[in-house]
């Protein structure tokens, strides 16, 4: 077997590297899946905000009277909600209903206390506590910005992962030093990517590394050694060169 390995930088295409395109495809599909979930959440958020806006446009302020108060246990009231049964009137129509209010705020209310309500005249039996509505409306103002930032973060993460996958596949072959690696353990069956420990010598210095062995038809051997490319940014990692890849690149005659 004759070797004709050029010096770096070497011409290597992504399609020549076994498994590289599949990894890019998987990363892209995962990114699209996450974006689809975010789009679904965005649609749900849009409907929720639209429903809230319609309610606020139609609602009228009403004063209710507390009939019954149901509070969480004392040690669980921080950040929890109380349920208030209230009586109120919308025009000439008398109604009663249940609203939610911050438990710490509600624990000071007694029977007959006034409770500020908002009621949609088109649905008079579904009151809401005015204070609770205002709290939710204030927090929901930031939700579109949070959703947009989340989508941007996902897009940037996907792009970074795609860039990293391309660099991981190509940089060792294009720019890395090519060495003869002595594996310290079996390389695996070649059906899936494996990581093994090994070493090589440079200037009579023994360097111990971890070697990534991708699936393929075999490796380039010279006795008990195999051809490997050092990862430029991670010198304690090497990539074992696949024999079919080496032949397609013209490194083997």
Question: Can you lay out the helices and strands and say which pair or pack?
Answer:
Layout: H1 20-58, E1 60-70, E2 81-90, E3 93-102, H2 103-106, E4 114-119, E5 128-129, H3 130-140, H4 143-175, E6 178-183, E7 194-202, E8 205-213, E9 221-222, E10 225-230, E11 237-240, H5 243-248
Parallel strand pairs: 8-11
Antiparallel strand pairs: 1-2, 1-4, 2-3, 4-5, 6-7, 6-10, 7-8, 9-10, 10-11
Report on this structure.
- The chain has helices spanning 20-58, 103-106, 130-140, 143-175, 243-248, and strands at 60-70, 81-90, 93-102, 114-119, 128-129, 178-183, 194-202, 205-213, 221-222, 225-230, 237-240.
- It is of the alpha+beta class and 253 residues long.
- Helices cover 37% and strands 30% of the residues.
- It is rod-shaped, with a radius of gyration of 33 Å.
- The model has no long low-confidence stretch (mean pLDDT 82).
- The chain has a five-stranded antiparallel beta sheet with strand order 3-2-1-4-5. A five-stranded mixed barrel has the order 6-7-8-11-10.
- It is built from five helices and eleven strands, in the order αβββαββααββββββα.
- A hairpin with a 6-residue loop joins β10 (225-230) and β11 (237-240).
